[in-house]
Design brief:
With 232 residues, the chain is of the alpha/beta class. It has two domains: 119 residues, Response regulator (Rossmann fold, 3-Layer(aba) Sandwich); 96 residues, Winged helix-like DNA-binding domain superfamily/Winged helix DNA-binding domain (Arc Repressor Mutant, subunit A, Orthogonal Bundle). It has a five-stranded parallel beta sheet with strand order 2-1-3-4-5, with helices on both faces. Strands 6-7-8-9 form a four-stranded antiparallel beta sheet, covered by helices on one side. It has a two-stranded antiparallel ribbon with strand order 10-11. Helix 2 runs parallel beside helix 3 and helix 6 crosses helix 8. It has eight helices and eleven strands. It is found in: Cytoplasm. This is DNA-binding response regulator, OmpR family, contains REC and winged-helix (WHTH) domain. One of its GO terms (cellular component) is cytosol. Keywords: DNA-binding, Phosphoprotein, Transcription, Transcription regulation, Two-component regulatory system.
Length: 232
């Protein structure tokens, strides 16, 4: 089955170039040329990934990204001429999976697209048919079916909320979650800026899974932005 990409880019030349190349790589590509059209396309069809320009008419890329993140964890790859660190942090902080600066090569873009889709659709496998929902992250073994966690073969007892937080990060390994996104997803409620609940649960989770909770490696803090899974 062809993987489907929603390409949101207002520049006709760039849109055509990216669309034609990705189609030649075997992807099904739907184009949108402004933020409002992109919202309509997303509501009308299902996609495996969104390629998103930031500078869009009618609804800008960041606002569109926030709208999508309220309803979906689909991989989103930002492509923008705004390549400053602040812009990258802003996009990743609002939930983008990756960021590529214009101008970019089609080879690099294709590689990043394939990697983002692969991360979203494939868990680390143990090879055991009964453990296809097991994700391995360094010393952690997270069983999504039995809702259990082991570290170096020893069981780690987590509360339901602690497991949900860990599950969110290990199933979205490249994504940055703001505290608002974390709260909305795990607590399924609106976030009003009270950080205490998140801070307490994060501290307790780190005390259980980290070798050094004061220097966490599994769930990293991006100051002023949010959290993401560490890389090993």
């Amino acid at each position: 089955m062809q993987q489907k990409i929603l390409l949101v880019e207002d520049d006709d030349g760039i849109s055509e170039m990216v669309r034609d190349h990705l189609r030649s790589e075997g992807f099904h590509v739907t184009s949108a040329f402004d933020g409002e059209e992109a919202v309509q396309q997303f509501e009308q069809d299902s996609f495996d990934l969104i390629l998103l320009d930031l500078m869009l008419p009618k609804l800008n890329g960041i606002d569109y990204l926030q709208q999508i993140r309220q309803k979906s964890f689909i991989p989103i790859l930002i492509m923008s001429a705004k390549d400053g660190e602040a812009d990258k942090a802003l996009g990743l902080g609002f939930g983008a999976d990756d960021y590529i600066a214009k101008p970019f090569s089609m080879i690099e873009l294709t590689a990043r697209v394939k990697a983002a889709i692969r991360r979203a659709t494939a868990y680390s496998r143990t090879g055991d048919a009964e453990e296809t929902n097991v994700i391995i992250v360094h010393e952690l073994k997270v069983d999504l079916t039995n809702l259990s966690v082991k570290k170096n073969s020893r069981e780690v007892k987590l509360t339901a909320k602690e497991f949900q937080i860990l599950q969110l990060f290990v199933t979205h390994p490249k994504k940055v979650f703001t505290k608002e996104q974390l709260y909305r997803t795990v607590w399924n409620d609106n976030y009003y800026g009270d950080e205490n609940v998140i801070n307490v649960h994060m501290r307790r989770l780190r005390e259980k899974i980290e070798n050094d909770p004061s220097n966490p490696q599994y769930i990293k803090t991006l100051w002023g932005i949010g959290y993401r899974l560490g890389e090993f």
